[in-house]
Amino acid sequence: MELLQRLSESDGISGFEAGIGKVVEEEMRSAGAVVEVDRVGNRIALLPGSEDGGRLLLTAHADEIGLIVRKVDRGGVLRFAAVGGIDPRVLPGQEVMVHGEKRLPGVIGSEPPHLQLEEEKDRVVEIEDLFIDVGLTERTVRRRVKTGDPIALSRKFMEMEGGLCAAKAFDDRASLAALVLAVEELARRDHRWDIYAVATVQEEIAHLGATVSAYGLDPGLAVVLDVTYGDMLGVDKYETYELGGGPTLGVGPGYHPRLRARLMETAEREGIPIQDEAEPRPRGTDAAAIQLTREGVPTALVGIPVRYMHTSAEVVATADVEGAARLLVEFSAELVDVGFLLNPDSITQDRA
């Protein structure tokens, strides 16, 4: 819980991940990993293997959705644009943190319904109609805030009943927590392969960090962690996955069937509940970028169900975070070679 809280309450929108990056770096170093920062800001933690087995890449993205200042408007309010996929309907009344000259708290305001014309009341608010009030004079705001300054959504971590918790940025800090937990355990375990655990940058807009890190590290295998759609009222069950039902494993043309089969075998042996996530085409995760790197990287996707994704009140089950971490640990620790990729006896999902 403490790790989830620390990660979720740290800011780092796409392209401005320095804050969350430092937190991840501290956590990885304290676990005993060697951590480097590459040219684009990825945090790369290395756990050297006991033998020359190969390179295993484990990733979760560090960035979150957010906003960016477009201009300081009349009266000192800030006009802004979205960074990543944000639904404008969830923004009015939202608390934010403007990262200008100094951290500057504010709220997103809009015209009260009492003052709206009748034809405006049923209209969906556009992001261009919204503004941020930081409580300062226009002159002071213009001195302290510049066009291009990043803005993070603000929300305190909340522990709920039933093993759930709510916060902003669980996409993808829930996966990042699982990655850190895995590094902590693997640092105490024997493993043959060199393990590279990477907190990637700019997944929400361009998969930049995943593309660069996969190219530079040239791994033999990759397992990507990201969130997936948690069960919620009003959405068909076949489109969502149960919170507390365990992490998901992607199955479809975007993921290597034999790597997925080995992960499934590991989960079954260790008693880790798994939910199948069928995808007819790769969705917008770092897995799509990594598998196309160089001559191709066999890649699998592990998902953590999150309810109310891309809002500031995302909900996750801590058991799913812990399950994803255990899966990474046991799979990584038992990895000897890539012979299973070529062994048809190990294929449980490939029907071709």
From TrEMBL:
Transmembrane regions: none
GO molecular function, one term: aminopeptidase activity
Designated name of the protein: M42 family peptidase
CC cofactor: a divalent metal cation
Top-level taxon: Bacteria
Entry keyword set: Aminopeptidase, Hydrolase, Metal-binding, Protease
Binding positions (Zn(2+) 2): 171, 204, 310
Active-site annotation: 203
Species, as recorded: candidate division TA06 bacterium SM23_40
Cofactor note: Binds 2 divalent metal cations per subunit.
Residues the entry annotates as binding Zn(2+) 1: 61, 171, 226
Stated family: Belongs to the peptidase M42 family.
BP GO annotations: proteolysis
Alphabetical list of InterPro entries matching this protein: Peptidase_M42, Peptidase_M42_aminopept, Peptidase_M42_dom2
